[in-house]
Design brief:
The complex is a heterodimer. By secondary structure, chain A is of the alpha/beta class. Chain A contains 19 helices and six strands. The chains are: A alpha/beta, B alpha/beta.
Chain lengths: ~500, ~290
């Protein structure tokens, strides 16, 4: 048991979940207090002791299935296939007894009945049967689980099954009512989803039996959402990113606002205390404290939305959208080779998708040819919005600094930097690529407080952390270009 | 003495007695916390019963509940202890001739100590349930302070010495996940993520909390709620909101949900106009 648990912890770590020594020991200790034969309880015990972030739960589930699925002794499953099948008959001799004799049609029929009656036990044993007969799994064949799953589902004709199920559910309800229809459709979908899960689990179990858990776990391992490369994120990746981005922006909001910290709480206000003490005969019964005025930052966000940045731009706009709900004073700008303000598209109550469509359609960001021109964008930004920059403004620029070999005109950015509290640059490219080809990162870095490599959420988080620690204490004179090496961030390295 | 439980199932049924419906995960973690004496960190969206869990655990173990509500700017003087400055001042004023040494030992005695929830929980003779609510709202510094108390169960007061725990409290921390808690804190806790309940469990919760509710309506409410939560909304309806909704429906005499009924009462469930519009649009789409 100890070695299996150790392997399992290893697998979690390989999947990117940080599990400390102490937590592994805790898990072991906790197992001593429970009935390890109870699968659900066993799983939840491990989950509670090893996983400390809900984002990691999906990866935990997969690893758990792989490592402990094959350990499930068959008698634990209360309904072994044949016995159950023969006991559940409607007269016809559909089941030829053995596990191989079932025709595909009757198998589908069983699945349909099980789903229609929401009978999960039958569903499970039928799914097992289906994998047995239809997946065509061969030992030692180097094919992934997805292939077998696809193969089984195609033979079961899962779309037709869902359609029948839907019709069956619909027959029960008042089809005139849209709500009822929607719920019926959802039910049908959920049952099919359930079947898919059963099939997948069964296939995984067999793969594990065949190849051992380490090999299977390796094929199933997926990058955690915080490590997905933002430049190459797929649509479904972006959706999962969307779910974790909101806490992150709230965090950034809290940091930037520099709310009252412990040490700032109430320095004694001597004058007020003395004045108040007059009421109590000169005894300062009620000490008065200075109130700390909350720092209200203004955030200006400047995003490159050119073609090369398409995926990242969607992400930064998402970030902007989430930020807009946190800051009253947030202004968002987008540019390709011209700059335009898009703050109004992120007003409260506007849907993100809608905002995106409107930015695409209405923002005036193309000046000449629609290729990134940072120099022109900065020049225009300064000319149009320069008057509105204040020493309390924080400017965040998101872009790859690929200027298409045009004049970088860094002097404009430097002038902007002289007017604001700080400029931060988020670059979605790997640091090794900076200043190669048409990237002119180094030319702009001098004007920035710091440049961050932000390729995934972890690094974005590192940016948020660093912003607090490295706040500019005194205003440097940034009107002249910084000599020597530019300040590149080394804070965002933990992923490499 | 508080009763002990021999299995998660026993915890679950005890919780059910006090009208808290725990699923397998919740009862397992509750059981482990009691067995191992470890704090529970409960995380999840607002309104899924995180705070209720602490209350229910207090009820089933027969312990009293001490609550520390966290907020930004919470510091030791609010969380741990504070000297009663006014009383000390009065004491000094009252007896001007006393020697300083004597006076000092006098004004820094227990009499002038204002205990705050953390110290109170530790000093309690009988074990208590300590609820640290919305722990994600405090700053890092305060979190470190909590950590110190939670790991050693003792508090050092410079003028008085170290106060050791008379009993080990069952600590429940809740978090809405507005920021990442420190690794050190998480490491010490059992982690419990509470999401929205499954339609089956929500139906049961509704039946428990709203006694007059018909089974059929409860089931419909739970299914519609699950369906609404799957949408991309600003604020998904919480369990407490579905309970309110159930009560509203009963008050209005509605015993069956259809598009019309949902449209008339959805404002109980959703609080943003954009959410309401979107939900109504989505719910009325006929997908057949």
């Amino acid at each position: 048991m100890i070695s299996l648990l150790a392997d399992f912890v290893q697998e979690l770590r390989r999947a990117g979940i940080p599990v400390s020594m102490v937590e592994a020991i805790d898990a072991m200790e906790a197992l001593g207090h429970i009935d390890v034969g109870h699968r659900e309880g066993f799983k939840e015990t491990l989950r509670a002791t090893l996983i400390k972030n809900s984002r990691h739960e999906a990866a935990f589930d997969v690893a758990f299935e792989v490592y402990f699925a094959s350990r499930r002794p068959p008698e634990q499953n209360p309904l072994p296939d044949e016995k159950h099948f023969t006991g559940n008959q409607m007269g016809e001799d559909r089941w030829m007894g053995g596990s191989s004799g079932l025709s595909v049609e009757s198998l589908i029929e069983t699945l349909y009945e099980a789903m229609a009656n929401q009978d999960f036990n039958t569903l499970r044993s039928a799914a097992r049967q289906a994998v047995d007969q239809l997946a065509g799994m061969e030992p030692g064949r180097p094919v992934g689980g997805t292939y077998y799953l696809y193969r089984t589902m195609r033979q079961l004709d899962i779309e037709a099954l869902e359609q029948r199920l839907l019709e069956m559910f619909m027959a029960d309800v008042d089809s005139e009512d849209a709500l009822a229809s929607r719920l019926a459709a959802e039910d049908a979908k959920r049952m099919v989803e359930q079947l898919r899960d059963e099939l997948r689990d069964e296939i995984r179990r067999r793969l594990v039996e065949d190849r051992g858990h380490e090999a299977v776990a390796k094929t199933l391992r997926q990058p955690l959402v915080e490590e997905i490369d933002l430049m190459h994120a797929t649509r479904s990746d972006l959706i999962s990113i969307e779910h974790v981005i909101e806490p992150l922006t709230r965090k950034l909001a809290a940091r930037l606002a520099r709310r009252r910290r412990l040490s700032d709480r109430g320095r004694l206000d001597f004058r007020k205390t003395v004045r108040a003490s007059l009421a109590t005969g000169g005894v300062p019964v009620e000490p008065k404290f200075k109130t700390v005025r909350p720092h209200r930052p203004e955030i200006f966000l400047l995003c490159d939305i050119s073609g090369s940045m398409a995926t990242f731009a969607r992400f930064t706009l998402q970030f902007t959208y989430a930020m807009a709900t946190q800051f009253s004073k947030l202004r968002a700008f987008v540019f390709v080779d011209a700059v335009d303000e898009v703050t109004d598209f992120f007003k409260p109550g506007i849907d993100f998708g809608e905002a995106l469509v409107r930015i695409g359609a209405e923002a005036d960001v193309v000046w000449l040819d629609g290729h990134s021109d940072y120099g022109h964008a900065f020049e225009q930004f300064l000319a149009r919005y320069g008057r509105e920059l204040t020493p309390r403004t924080t400017l965040i620029i998101a872009g790859d600094a690929r200027n298409n070999y045009r004049d970088p005109r860094a002097q404009y950015l430097e002038e902007v930097a002289g007017m604001v509290e700080a400029v931060y640059w988020l670059n979605p490219e790997p640091k090794a690529y900076w200043d190669s080809g048409d990237s002119v990162m180094v030319r702009y870095a001098g004007a920035c407080e710091q440049v961050f490599e932000v390729r995934n959420l972890n690094q974005l988080e590192a940016f948020v952390e660093t912003v607090t620690d490295h706040r500019p204490k005194t205003r440097r004179n940034r009107s002249t270009p910084t000599k020597g090496a530019p300040m590149y961030s080394s804070a965002a390295q933990r992923n490499n | 003495m508080s009763p002990s439980f021999d299995s998660p199932a026993a915890v679950a049924s005890a919780l059910r007695e006090v009208d808290y419906l725990a699923d397998a995960r919740i009862s397992q973690v509750g059981f482990l916390a009691l067995e191992l004496g470890k704090p529970i960190l409960v995380e999840g969206p607002a309104g899924v019963g995180k705070t209720e869990l602490a209350k229910a655990l207090a009820a089933v173990t027969g312990r009293s509940l001490i609550r520390l509500q966290c907020y930004e700017g919470l510091d030791e003087s609010r969380a741990l202890y504070e000297w009663n400055y006014k009383k000390q001042l009065l004491r000094i004023q009252a007896d001007q001739d006393q020697g300083w040494d004597e006076l000092e030992s006098d004004i820094f005695s227990e009499e002038f100590l204002l205990t705050r929830p953390l110290l109170e929980a530790i000093r309690s003779e009988d074990p208590v349930v300590l609820l640290i609510d919305e722990v994600d709202r405090v700053e890092m510094e305060t979190e470190a302070l909590l950590l110190e108390v939670l790991s050693d169960f003792q508090v050092s007061i410079p003028e008085l010495g170290t106060v050791k725990a008379a009993s080990v409290p069952l600590v429940v921390l809740t978090s809405n996940n507005t920021r990442e808690l420190s690794e050190a804190l998480k490491r010490r806790c059992l982690f419990l993520h509470v999401g929205y309940p499954s339609p089956e469990r929500e139906r049961e919760i509704l039946m428990t909390k709203v006694p007059d509710l018909a089974v059929r309506l409860a089931e419909e409410i739970a299914r519609v709620a699950a369906s609404i939560r799957a949408m991309d909304l600003k604020k998904a309806p919480s369990v407490s909101e579905t309970i309110d909704w159930a009560r509203t429906l009963i008050a209005l005499g509605i015993d069956h949900l259809d598009t019309q009924a949902v449209g008339d009462t959805i404002h109980v469930l959703l609080k943003y106009q954009t959410d309401i519009e979107r939900a109504l649009k989505d719910l009325s789409v006929d997908r057949t």
